[in-house]
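Holo model, fructose -6-phosphate. Inputs:
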Amino acid sequence: MQFSSQTAQVGEVGEICRAMADEVEALIKGKAAGGEKVVLGLATGSTPLPFYHELIRRHREEGLSFQNVVSFNLDEYEGLGRDHERSYWAEMWQNLFDHVDIDPGNVSVPPSIFEDAEAAAAGYEAAIREAGGIDWQLLGIGGEGHIGFNEKGSGEESRTRRITLARKTIEDAAPAFGGEENVPTHAITMGVATILEARRIVLMARGASKREIVLRAMSGEVGPEVPASFLQNHGNVGWFLDNDAAGS
Ligand code: F6R
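Output:
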């Protein structure tokens, strides 16, 4: 499959993770050679775990260093402190940062506890801008087509903000929280416009349950009904799909 400015890579999970890690490794090494930092936008959830394993493996076995990496996560549940095991802050440390040599001062996850949501969101946007913008943004996709926590109805101009989680998002998260009643009802998320400013976007999807929504996002009507469809308007997107998500 080849799109104007979009490519799709389909294969076994291991294969697509290696291809994604190749991109990140080249970026890290290229920037390091010039004494520059690389800014990664990262996602949580189950989808990227094997990709993070591959990055950790390259760090441990091949000496890939993350010392020049600056990272910004897409989203965070409102109200969960950093020590809450379901917070995305904690997830990122468990699944990636604790296992590589990233400088803890270079890691950002949207604030989860704030008095003024607008100020907190604006501060996050400003930090991304000050870092020079995102070079490489990783995304998963929700069952109804959200990217970050940009739920159905999120517009192309949306920026980082507080958002009410969709019913489906809460249902999907319920097992991890031991019941729907324990899932936060709100989150703070980078906006669609914030995401689309990244210079390279990689959307990863695994499993047959994502097949239909991936197809709608890649080739369906572009609009807030499926926020991931706005990626069709970006000039440099890679869709990395396992065989089940691609339906091949
Ligand atoms: C997570 C995020 C979400 C997930 C999406 C898919 O930071 O931004 O958009 O990528 O909900 O979740 P999984 O990978 O668990 O299927």
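The helical segments are 13-33, 49-62, 88-95, 117-130, 167-177, 192-196, 211-219, 243-246. Residues 170 and 242 are 25 Å apart (CA to CA).
Archived with the compound record.
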